[in-house]
Structures are given as structure tokens and as C-alpha cells.
């Protein structure tokens, strides 16, 4: 059983692709006429020219829309696909789950003809996000271990450019920092189930921090402390696109 066979059952409910992030990812794919999505999950952000999805979790594959590209159950570290199989390969919010990053990135470069697009986060920025910094330091420790430094990723890709992915205040993809202006959402167990840093840290570890958040929301302390956020439309939660031309 893979991690996402265990934690991925509600993914299609809370992790709907955000249209603004979709536009940025599709622009990063450039004029590719064929795309392979590795660590594809339920198929978020796949452009119409997607020819194949690669995903190890059967639970995630089962959540793919019926009309989406064919999926094979496989891991990034060993992709059963020929060299140069598609113009572009994308790997979105997945590299931090891989057991062997170097092999996985080498596989992306092998099966892509022209471009690789990786959506990830810069932990040096994300660890300052209020939820983690003020309430859940144990989750910072968890992500410090698994986060992939953007510089390392770029080096493994043989050089890359990096774009910030701003998080809209009403982001429909409920990833870690998506609810930066909607703090009550983090008190919802269904929302937390779709955020791997919270689901994998475990409820026991995060319960005290969430109780403090609930208190600060009820007393108005959170809103006082974060009044600056309430007037903003987007936020830098550390999310980045790493784009490599081969
Ligand atoms: C946070 S989800 C992202 C899914 C999708 N790319 C998206 O953006 O919604 C992470 C995905 O990576 C997959 N994954 C975990 N380990 C993997 C590996 N070694 N190779 C490829 N995918 C992996 C998980 O099963 C899960 O579907």
C-alpha cells in the first residue's frame, strides 16, 4: 500500500485544481504537443495534450475523471516508458514523496524530449507561513526532512528557471498554505486529510497547535495579529515552478 492509498481518499474533494495555477502551469509547458504527468494523482492540472499519467497509488488513479489520459501504475524512479516519449513532462507537488529523488529526476529527463516542469515549494519560505511558524513547529520539522531544496532540484535538472506561484486567497486546490486567509479551514479534518504535511505528521502531534489556533480565532487574536493578510489577494507560500529546457 502506498502513502496515498492511505491518505488520498478525499483528494478529489479538497484538492480541485485552481484555474490561476492551471494557467501558470500550462504556460510553463510552452508549445508541447504531448505531455506526461508523473506523480499524477487524480489528474489535477493535466492539459488536454496529456498522453499518459504515471502514478503509484491505485486509490489516486481511481479518482481520475473517466475521460482523462490513460494512467499506468508506476513510480517516478522507474518509469516503464521509452526515451523521449513526450515533448514535456510535468511532476506536480510530488517530488517530496519520492524514495529516490536522483533516479526520479533522471527518469523525467530521459522520457522528456524538450522540457520538464516541476511544481514544488521552497521550504525556506514555507517554514515562515503563519500556520507552521506560530502553531505547528512539529510540522516544520517534518517538512524540513522531506522538502527538496529548489537549488538541488534545478541542479539535478541540469539548470532551470524558477517562478513563484502566488496562492490566491480563494485557492480551490487545498494544499498546505492554500487557506492562508481562511484560517478556520485548518480546523476541518477533511481539509487536513488532503494536506500531506498535516496528515502524515499525525493528529496527536498537531492537536495542541490546532487547539491554540481555535482559541486565537475565537478570541480575535489571530485576526488582530494578521490584519495585514485580510486585505491581500495573493500570498507567497513558497510554491515554485522549476522549469528546465533539455
Ligand atoms: C500531493 S499528490 C499530487 C498529485 C497531483 N500531481 C496534483 O498536483 O494534484 C502527490 C502524488 O505523488 C504520488 N507519489 C508518491 N510517491 C511517488 C513516486 N515515487 N513516484 C511517483 N509518484 C509518487 C502520490 O501517490 C500522489 O498521488
UniProtKB/TrEMBL annotation:
KW Transmembrane (keyword) present: no
Residues annotated as domain Methyltransferase type: 38-115
One Gene Ontology MF term: methyltransferase activity
Keywords for the protein's UniProt record, in alphabetical order: Methyltransferase, Transferase
Keyword Transferase carried by entry: yes
Biological process (GO), any one: methylation
Name used for this protein in its record: Class I SAM-dependent methyltransferase
Amino acid at each position: 500500500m502506498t502513502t496515498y492509498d492511505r491518505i488520498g481518499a478525499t483528494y478529489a474533494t479538497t484538492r480541485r485544481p485552481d484555474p490561476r495555477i492551471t494557467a501558470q502551469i500550462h504556460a510553463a509547458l510552452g508549445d508541447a504537443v504531448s505531455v506526461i504527468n508523473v506523480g499524477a494523482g487524480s489528474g489535477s492540472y493535466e492539459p488536454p495534450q496529456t498522453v499518459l499519467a504515471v502514478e503509484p497509488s491505485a486509490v489516486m488513479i481511481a479518482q481520475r475523471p473517466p475521460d482523462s489520459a490513460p494512467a499506468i501504475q508506476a513510480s517516478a524512479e522507474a518509469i516503464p516508458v521509452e526515451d523521449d516519449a513526450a515533448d514535456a513532462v510535468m511532476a506536480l507537488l510530488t517530488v517530496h514523496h519520492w524514495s529516490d529523488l536522483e533516479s526520479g529526476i533522471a527518469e523525467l529527463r530521459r522520457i522528456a524530449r524538450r522540457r520538464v516542469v516541476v511544481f514544488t515549494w521552497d521550504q525556506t519560505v514555507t517554514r515562515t507561513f503563519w500556520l507552521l511558524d506560530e502553531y505547528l513547529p512539529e510540522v516544520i520539522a517534518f517538512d524540513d526532512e522531506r522538502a527538496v531544496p529548489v537549488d538541488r532540484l534545478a541542479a539535478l535538472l541540469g539548470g532551470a528557471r524558477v517562478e513563484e506561484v502566488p496562492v490566491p486567497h480563494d485557492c480551490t486546490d487545498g494544499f498546505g498554505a492554500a487557506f492562508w486567509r481562511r484560517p478556520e479551514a485548518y480546523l476541518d479534518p477533511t481539509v487536513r486529510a488532503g494536506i500531506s504535511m498535516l496528515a502524515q505528521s499525525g493528529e496527536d502531534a498537531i492537536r495542541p497547535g490546532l487547539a491554540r489556533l481555535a482559541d486565537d480565532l475565537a478570541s480575535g487574536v489571530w485576526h488582530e495579529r494578521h490584519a495585514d493578510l485580510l486585505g491581500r489577494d495573493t500570498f507567497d507560500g513558497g510554491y515554485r515552478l522549476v522549469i528546465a529546457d533539455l
